[in-house]
Sequence to fold (623 residues):
Amino acid sequence: MHRSQKSASLPFIVWMVLFTIVPIILVIVYALQNGGGDFTLQNFVDFADPIYINVLLRSIGIALLCTAVCLLIGYPTAYFLTHKGLDKKGILILLFIIPMWMNFLVRTYAWLTLLESNGLITSTVNAIRHLFGAQDDVRLLYNYGAVLMGMVYNYLPFMILPLYTALDKMDKKVIEAAEDLGATKFQVFVKVVLPLSLPGIASGITMVFMPAVTTFVISRLLGGAQFKLFGDLIEQQFLFTGDWNFGSAMSLVMMALLLISMGLMNRFGDREGGGIL
Amino acid sequence: MKKLSLLLVFVLLIVTLSGCGATAKESITVYNWEDYIDPAALELFTEETGIEVKYVRFTTNEEMYIKLEKGGTAYDVAFPSDYLIERMIANDMLMPLDKEALPNFRYITSWMQDPDYDPNSAYSAAYMWGTVGILYNTKMVSEPITSWGAMWDTQYERNVLMMDSVRDSLGVTLCYLGYDLNTRSQSELEAARDKLIEQRESGVLLAYGVDEIKDKMVAGEAAMGLVWSGDAVNSIKLNPDLAYVVPDEGSNVWLDGMVIPKTCKNYDGAMQFINFMLRSDIAAMNSQYIGYSTPNDGALEYLPEEMTSDPNFNPPEDVIARCTFFHDVADVLDVYNRIWLEVTAN
Fold:
């Protein structure tokens, strides 16, 4: 490597060591200690309690669901955005990115108001339901659906952007060739577009699944602290219970889980060298 | 590489120099609850003493305790509740308060000058006090509420807000069951746990929250919520349909104090701050702003008649008589945490 290139990487290396490597080592050290600082594996034994496993499974479940919903909404959206004849594409993409300029906590607080019974969305939904003869009112806040909604809302851009990148840089001549050879629109999509966009799908899934499975705060605010997710449990260990050793062990379990899922995803994603990650 | 090192040195120089500039001005770091002071009082303090206040907020006692225990940030003044002051004294985390430097301490009501969690107020000076009770919407309940049982009454389906705070929610449940809210009995705690799980499973519970409870009550989002009395006073001001009650079975009465952690950086500044907050006009200002009862006798004359005569603001003797202070349960804290986990994580 050229000397100047080497020194250019210095800030990154310093950053990585200080804010990634050192913290990870600290987490591992904490996880393998008890409160008195002696080596132990007890934290992992404690973790095998059904109460924690259930929360972990719930987190994985809602994260998978959130990822699936994001993919179902995100893929058609990204596909639409790459359409040749589309005017003002830049503005449309900007519209997806603008909400991300605001802190996610602020946006989640907004949902707290939108979804309450007298809130804009709930009262609209109920007004429509009453038009069709419904007598009762639905409540949209403080349930599983509200948590899922908040997650999808927050993580959707992470799905759309890599998908858009993958679809947009696809060589349009390949599609034309397929059409010239007599493929129907459906065949073109299934045999050409979809396989070529796999790396984008893989990185979209990773980018949504990872923050989704570690979600906290969204579940506390929109679920009324009744749908505890794994991220909430870890937060609780650090902020309220004060057992940093056990909290670190839980974080390690989470990290291992993420590494495995990332490894799985990379088998699709990196082959084509596409996507964002 | 040489240029880069030069640049680094330059940057470091700027950082340290500007750091010096900032510390030249005297400052203190204050760690207080959300919505728990009149911001104007902080400005007045800086105006009068020249001491800058770095103001940091917390949501629950437990959260504050962990921050102080684990270090990281040095706080000069903190505002824990009674049972945590007890634990901090036991764990030798507090500086004694030099009463000579606190002339305004004499304004504190006599019984709060010598609370049982901190004899003679050696380490803490009372800031605010109040009760825990039910804030309810008179338009949404069938009759005035007098018992904790209302929070389990299935006619209020998805209409009850509980506090996401272990001592408060467990405490009132223990009261409802007729147990001591400082109990160390495993079976009593398990009974309270089952009661709280029943509240979720029967569909009465709408959500757990802390600071958002008052917003949701004001918005008419739920029939009742578990709140601290000061939040009730403020919410009733915003929505006159609301009422507050300390149920007949008894409840918790609490006292929040100002303390100086051992890790403080500016003891003298912290003492000046505490003395300033104990000044009667300032205590009145804070009390009026946040709605909590002041332990400051001198403040009462600064407060409007409608506040001092309000039983929610100034709880009558019989209400206090049926309420109990929390005490620290450090030896069975694991049991409390476990019970709370089983309630909330299921």
About this structure: Residues 25-128+255-310 of chain B form a domain with the D-Maltodextrin-Binding Protein; domain 2 fold (CATH 3.40.190.10).
